[in-house]
Amino acid sequence: MKILRFSYNIIVLAAVIVLMAACSSDDSVEGGSPSDKGDLLTLRIATQNETRGRTVEWNDDNGLDEEMMNLWVVVVTNTSNGAVQHCFACRPPSGDTKEREIDEVGRIAKGAYTIYSFANISVSKVCELLGLSAPSTLPTIGSTPVEITLTGAVNHTSVAAAAVTVNGNGFNPAAADNGFGEQGIPMSNKQTTDEMDSGKDLIVVRMLAKIEVQLFSVSNSPIKVKSATLTKVTANAENNLKLLPNYTTASSANTMEAVHGDIRPNLNGTPATIGYTYSLASATTVPANYDFASNKDNPEYKLTFYVNESIAPTLDVPNLFFLTIGIEVDGNIVEYHHVLMNQEGSTTPDNNKWNYIARNDYRIIPVILTDWQFRVEPIAFVPIAGYPATLLSSDALTATFSTGGMIALQPFVKKYGDTSWRGFGDPIITDVTIDVVTRTGSENMITTPFAYDSVNRCIIGELNNNLPAGNYMATITVNVKLDSYSYSFTFNIVLDK
Q1: Residue 60 vs residues 46, 50, 65, 365: alpha-carbon distances, Å
Q2: In the CATH hierarchy, which fold is given to the domain comprising 210-370?
Q3: Tens digits of per-residue pLDDT, 316-361?
Q4: Would you tell me how many other CB atoms lie within 10 Å of the CB of residue 399?
Q5: Rounded to an integer, what distance in angstroms lies between the CA atom of residue 306 and that of residue 113?
Q6: What are the boundaries of each domain within the chain?
Q7: For labelling alongside 161, which of 14, 45, 349, 479 has CA 20 to 30 A away?
Q8: Strands (DSSP E) along 61-165, which ranges?
Q9: DSSP states of 307-338 as a string?
Q10: Following CA atoms 115, 120, 125, 131 in sequence, which dihedral angle do they give, to the nearest 10 degrees?
Q11: Bridge partners for 108 per DSSP
Q12: pLDDT at 262 over 90
């Protein structure tokens, strides 16, 4: 006896567009001209914010006050032996809430230096991270840069490998202590100079990423959104990330890297991952027919939260993140699952993968909500020429086959509030394709792989007659257009003998 069971991973998968903010290029802040500096090197500092392509910058205009720099600490070291040459610190001017860039942090003799720049990390913590002894007494740090005397040397190799604890998931930038002895998003970077430089733009990179889920709707009824879950992101855990950003030359083999820019995740080994859930105390109600085309430039309904930089898992669905939106329907929470893909680029598979989140990213995820439901039902076959019937369970989630042969699955969709389900012969349903990923078991259990039969409008596969005891599981994703919008509905199928 062969048992077919299937369970739904996804109730509804609405249309999702992903825009990628890859904050990667240096942001120059003008200082004086080289001619008036003699043999001195002028250090300037700013937050990294520029991005590439059709993306969103995390900059002074769209960033929150608490997302900016509240304290700068710059440590200048000898490139060869790590000896500390200078340490400068300052805070923004009083009342300066946005333009937090310093045209002159300090002026030092020209030379080959390795410079460590930090923001929103206390001087004592900086010393700890760099393996230095903090001075017993620190000067008052105000809007005028002060030089702090530090002794000792920095081991450049050790600092490059140093790990820190970043609790980016659910981070509160307004909290009094960010885990690094200051308020605000912790930032870091390492840069170098040579004898020819007369000015250096020091850039600090935020050590976490910002996610903004923009909500739109094609439903004829308001939709109440209660939560957003992003999987699988790096967990908040001890020493989960490296101290410094990872600058890696973009590889032509990964088109996402070419689009994203210079920064890659810099994880400490393979840290644990979680599904981080951003929950709302009260639901955000998205009005009926709040369409994307009319409102995309100034969306009113958003969920904004922070996460750790992460690399997409390779086990469940290779190199993809999932976003789950929890909505309230008749007092119950229904989950909308979304596979995050890049909106732009070529049709090659790698280009559509949203396969990592780097520090300092500002990711925009527009989600078009709908009220479509999906189910699939085995088609029952009556006995023919000695072949026994296919027996369905009362909930139509299990089918029993006494022999091998054809397995046919009928997909259906309907909107909440509708009384009847629509088969895939309905004229509003077009452009149907399916993707099949084998999870466990032997593919020899299936002699003909599952595929979509466009004539009979169902999913068909063939079960092997001569099977040993065992099981087979696959995930089938049905891609379809409903009223001109693209959707993907996913379910699991399990064969037991």
Answers
A1: 10, 11, 8, 21
A2: Immunoglobulin-like (2.60.40)
A3: 445 678 888 998 877 778 777 776 765 443 344 444 457 788 898 8
A4: 22
A5: 33
A6: 34-206, 210-370, 374-496
A7: 45
A8: 72-78, 84-90, 102-109, 113-119, 146-147, 163-164
A9: E--EE--SSSSTT--EEEEEEEETTEEEEEEE
A10: -20
A11: 41
A12: no
Would you say 362 and 210 are in contact if contact means Cβ atoms under 8 Å apart?
yes
Amino acid at 240: N
The H or E element spanning position 234 is: strand 223-234
DSSP count for the chain of H helices, then E strands: 4, 33
3-state helix, strand, coil in the chain (%, to 5): 5, 45, 45
Q: If you average pLDDT over every residue of the chain, what do you get?
A: 77
Q: What is the average per-residue pLDDT within 472-497?
A: 75
Q: What is the pLDDT of residue 474?
A: 74
CATH class of 374-496: mainly beta
pLDDT at 49: 55
Whether the predicted pLDDT of 197 surpasses 80: no
d(CA 55, CA 287): 26
34-206 carries CATH number 2.60.40.2580: yes
What does the block give as tokens for 464? 């092997």
Residues 127, 140: Cα–Cα separation, whole Å: 17
